[in-house]
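#struct-help
A.M.: can someone run this one for me? Single chain, 216 residues.
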Amino acid sequence: MKTNKIVAVQTASFLLQIKAIKLNNEHPFTWASGRKSPIYCDNRITLSYPEIRTYIRQRFVDIISEQIGDVDVIAGVATGGIAQGALVAQELGKPFVYVRSEEKKHGLTNQIEGEIKPGQSVVVVEDLVSTGKSSLIAVHALRDKGCDVKGMVAIFTYGLDVAAKNFADADMNLFTLTDYDTLIDVAREQEYIRDTDSKSLAEWRMNPEKWSDDRM
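D.P.: on it. Structure tokens below:
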């Protein structure tokens, strides 16, 4: 999971500025899984801010050009990666597809929407990575179609050990604009959180399940 420190700090500042990422130890958020968390991330909000939207798009383009290399197709992960992926594809002049978490139950029952051909090289665009499980579903779906998935780019990662293992097991490179540790450092420097909150936030990152269970 590779990041550029300067880009990571700037991206974290943007996300905190527009409240795309919220931190609250005293009143934890409930994720869809039912787990409690001191952090909630909604990167879709970045699309409403042209300056930030453009910054994210260009940094993705930089990573693809400098770290991954030329590809035939850009693929967005539904739903958070669709808009970001389309912006990147437009900037690079590449075809775009998006990948659902599963096949549709009606119509053509597609899991991949758009035209994709065996042998094409692809980069996957995601908005955030938690455990990596849902993100890697897209990778496996593209590989099942005979595509060469050369890497994934995402705005933010929680930096969980389970995600690192899942990406390693899938032999997939992940490049993110910012990460959990950088976000906490920036939040502390900008007095978005108190120093006393840092310990709890670090504990959550080390063991999210235990942190959540202690607050259920």
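A.M.: thanks! The CA atoms of residues 19 and 45 lie 8 Å apart.
D.P.: also worth noting: The mean pLDDT is 93.
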